[in-house]
Batch of 3 targets.
Target 1
Amino acid sequence: MYLFQLMDFYCASGMSLLWCTFFQTIAICWIYGAEKVYDNIHHMIGFRISKLWYWCWMVISPAFMVVSRGPGQRRSFATS
């Protein structure tokens, strides 16, 4: 149980998961390409999904992650 508490506190904290998902979103949608992801999903499920998903991948999700990172980062600098 102690090991899981350590991992929860240090490894799977909100900030490290936020960084991982931010860079994963950037890698998949900006480097590989959101249009390719959009076309791959169309190929897998057989119909086109809403263009809202494209905008979520490209703009909304990265912006939300950057904005939500801000208050936590300022708080950690204030306590150190």
Target 2
Amino acid sequence: MEPTHPEEGTRGADPGPASRSLQPIRVTMHETKELALQAPDALLDVAAVAKRLVVSRAAVYRLVRDRRIPHYRLPAGLRFRAAEVETFIASRRVDARAPRTYGGS
């Protein structure tokens, strides 16, 4: 059966500018950092943040529940700004200590 509308039944059809702004960007772990530099206002979904942090989705939900990571509650679900995820990662940096010396002179 042929679709009656040209875009009906077409995969990947452009949903238009209104709905495109609410769609999360799906990226790989390595692309998230580049995205934060190029488009800091880009919104990521839970799965993308989990990939970037190399944790499970449940761990991301725990960070949200404990209010440890900045996030937005939108009608479409939880979203995270790419730049804020990178800031979160940077804030968790632990400085190395000088090695311990034992004994003598």
Target 3
Amino acid sequence: MSIRITEAAMAAAVRNILADCPSKTASFVELRELVPQHVSLSHADHAKSPTRPGEELWQQILRNLVSHKHEGFVSVRGGLRLQWRRQVGKMRELAMGYGSHVRA
């Protein structure tokens, strides 16, 4: 059985990605391209979502970050923006504590 990425690990990866973006903002299209470069996705993460046609489970978790209001970023039209620009270094430190899914 493959271990799936958690929402907390996904949020940590997204915070790291946004911290590296010049505008601290990324669209969901960009995040779908960048997330696999920042986290280790299992076979189970790549399974088709039963509730969102055309999406894999990890992509559903990415979109859930908006509705579940994770700390560190806010929803913008079509994507996410880093909320605390002054605390990027601190958020990177926190992100490193979310297990083996998140790559430095």
